[in-house]
Amino acid sequence: MAKINQNYLQLQGSYLFSEIAKRRTKFISENPNAQIISLGIGDVTRALPQSVLTGLHNAVDELASEKSFRGYGPEQGYDFLINAIIEHDYKTRGVTLNSNEVFVSDGSKCDVGNIQEIFSGDSIIAVQDPVYPVYVDSNVMAGRSGNYNKETNRYDNIVYLTCNQENNFKPELPTQKVDLIYLCYPNNPTGMTLTKAELKKWVDYAKENKCILLFDSAYEAFIQEDDVPRSIYEIEGAKEVAIEFRSYSKTAGFTGVRCAYTVVPRELKAYDEDGNEMLVNDLWNRRQTTKFNGCSYVTQKGAAAIYTPEGREQIAALVDYYMSNAKVIREGLSSLGLSVFGGVNAPYIWLKTPNNLSSWEFFDKLLSEAHIVGTPGVGFGQAGQGYFRLTAFGSRENTEAAVERIKKLSL
Ligand code: PLP
Q: Which domains does the chain have, with CATH numbers?
């Protein structure tokens, strides 16, 4: 008899986006002429930069001839991309990496979801609340979560690090023992960041307590301020305690093309049952070579084109475009007296709902009165209740129109 992985029964339905779609569909069926603007989902809308398109096209042409045809590539990624990553994303920040410390993949979602499987089943995980749901659900599937408590909307065995207005969305260090800590900066959904000094506290804590930081840096390219670290490895000692995840999805319009990378330093150790040190890099390499056959050559050529002088310029323009949208939203909503967070170093704007409306009440108000779809903060965790996320990934026209509509609401 084929039995299922019982842990899957602990997963909560992906309520958030299906509920948003349900309410949106109902509204449209009742108001067929409404012009809906979506500032809800985190997908990009601008076309791929020209340098990336050229990189992709040239790579496709190479595959047309047996002389330059490529079949299976290295599971870890091609050297041309890994070297460009090391040179441009790290060396420029004073961080040295070896090529065997960078693992190219087809997306950060897979990497942040898969990384947990190289750690012990009884590891205690800590997540920020609100949180990108993949960190939680991948650990639920692996049996680390314990039961779901419907009253608290939290899993019994997961340690939640609350991020709210009171602590300026900067979590306190855990007060109980944890083994793996997921940190996401710039943060999805709050759009907030940590300074170098604040991040150093986490690195020091991880060193002292022999835990590992899983640092999701998917939005690194959107950082504008100097004091915000672009890589956790800018913090002294971080290579001994941190894995870093980066993605081309939002930076370069790769949400559909799919390419990302993960850095696992050779200095990073974890322990076996007898307390012997093991290299995490070796385990991740073993995992990837067993279960992953590499990101396509064409895609990696497209990604490498980002690091050419033209590519860098085009990416910067893309980021500028979205960050100008963020400014439009942030300043527009602030001018109404709303409490607005994020949007300075990240493409997400996180706002406190007015008049203590719940996240879903505010969702309904925005949809019915302004025909705008956003994302209720409570969908990212209990600490997101009473907050709301808007994204800067729309067109300028829609973004400006949305803000004008919100200005007309009685809040
Ligand atoms: N990490 C965070 C925090 C994200 O918000 C996302 C995408 O929304 C990802 C990872 C996944 O990125 P990718 O498209 O590379 O799978």
A: 13-47+311-407 (3.90.1150.10), 54-309 (3.40.640.10)
